[in-house]
């Protein structure tokens, strides 16, 4: 998965694997989480959101997508 930097106070980079629909999020504190079964449209909206952190919280975390911490 390739990651692209985003402008955020909490997130450093975001990546997406279209084949598995896994959204990867690297946080500024060094942790990395993978969110499972995320539609590509949500990834694209996250990348263009004015606040990546707020978008992640509202549309991915609060929506209940399963996740795993990988680092």
Short description:
The protein has 71 residues and is of the alpha+beta class. It has helices at residues 40-48, 52-61; strands at 3-5, 11-17, 22-27, 32-35, 67-69.
What value does the Rg take, in angstroms? 11 Å
Specify the biggest β-sheet.
5 strands, antiparallel
Low-confidence regions: none
In percent terms, what proportion of residues is strand? 25-35%
Tally of DSSP β-strands: 5
Treating each run of at least 4 consecutive H or I residues as one helix, how many helices?
A: 2
Helix content: 25-40%
What class would the helix/strand composition place it in?
Answer: alpha+beta
Q: Give the overall form.
A: globular
User: What's the overall average pLDDT, rounded?
Assistant: 96
Series of secondary-structure elements, N-terminal to C-terminal: EEEEHHE
The first-to-last residue Cα distance is 14 Å
Q: Which strands sit side by side, in order, in the main sheet?
A: 1-2-3-4-5
Describe the 3D structure:
- The protein has 71 residues and is of the alpha+beta class.
- It is built from two helices and five strands.
- It has helices spanning 40-48, 52-61, and strands spanning 3-5, 11-17, 22-27, 32-35, 67-69.
- Helix 1 (40-48) packs antiparallel against helix 2 (52-61).
Layout: helices, strands, pairs:
Blueprint: E1 3-5, E2 11-17, E3 22-27, E4 32-35, H1 40-48, H2 52-61, E5 67-69
Antiparallel strand pairs: 1-2, 2-3, 3-4, 4-5
Helix pairs in contact: 1-2
């Amino acid at each position: 998965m390739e990651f692209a930097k985003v402008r955020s106070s909490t997130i450093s980079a975001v990546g997406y694997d279209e084949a598995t629909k896994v959204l990867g999020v690297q946080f500024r504190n060094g942790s990395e989480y993978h969110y499972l079964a995320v539609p590509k449209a949500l990834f694209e909206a996250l990348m263009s959101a004015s606040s990546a952190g707020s978008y992640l919280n509202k549309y991915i975390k609060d929506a209940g997508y399963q996740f795993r911490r990988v680092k």
